[in-house]
């Protein structure tokens, strides 16, 4: 088992007709490997370092950096973690070395017995979700596959956030909900998966 801590809850809202305020959720996984998922914007380095210090973690103690996709609010502080292997969407690298993995064929990437990376394209065509086995069940750190808990009943929320393939995104939203007990969305608070949520996502799949 691993421990998962949401260091910061993401958010997204329009502040005017031409401006949006947004930042992603940032999570820390402590276990066989120390992992940070989605490193926020480039202006958040001090916040992340202080949050890690609260858990007695220094940047050089992080083994993996995982960005659920390559948008700027999810990769902004990846370069704080130069001792880590980096997974950005479907890309796995360490320094100049790139490791080939068949994410595009639906293949999961196992980090250890508690943590694996699942390809979940939709928001972008190379989105991934991190599945973590914890004492409270399986937690899916899903990035922008889910914007927030409200987008279950109001799908226009995730659609308006941008989706490169809405059909795939619908399928992967249901697939993740069916295997997770909790979801950490890209721009909201962690929420519990209920049968009502699964039923709603199934209905949307055939709409």
TrEMBL record:
Q: Which Gene3D superfamilies match?
A: Ribonuclease Z/Hydroxyacylglutathione hydrolase-like
Subunit field text: Homodimer.
Origin organism of this chain? Chilo suppressalis
Highest taxon above the source species:
Eukaryota
State the name under which the record lists this protein.
Metallo-beta-lactamase domain-containing protein 1
> Which reaction does this chain catalyze?
a ribonucleotidyl-ribonucleotide-RNA + H2O = a 3'-end ribonucleotide-RNA + a 5'-end 5'-phospho-ribonucleoside-RNA + H(+)
What is the role of the protein in this entry?
Endoribonuclease that catalyzes the hydrolysis of histone-coding pre-mRNA 3'-end. Involved in histone pre-mRNA processing during the S-phase of the cell cycle, which is required for entering/progressing through S-phase. Cleaves histone pre-mRNA at a major and a minor cleavage site after the 5'-ACCCA-3' and the 5'-ACCCACA-3' sequence, respectively, and located downstream of the stem-loop. May require the presence of the HDE element located at the histone pre-RNA 3'-end to avoid non-specific cleavage.
**CDD domains reported in the protein's UniProt record:** MBLAC1-like_MBL-fold
Spell out the subcellular localization from the entry: Cytoplasm, Cytosol
Q: Which InterPro entries match?
A: MBLAC1, Metallo-B-lactamas, RibonucZ/Hydroxyglut_hydro
Domain Metallo-beta-lactamase per the UniProt entry, residue ranges: 23-187
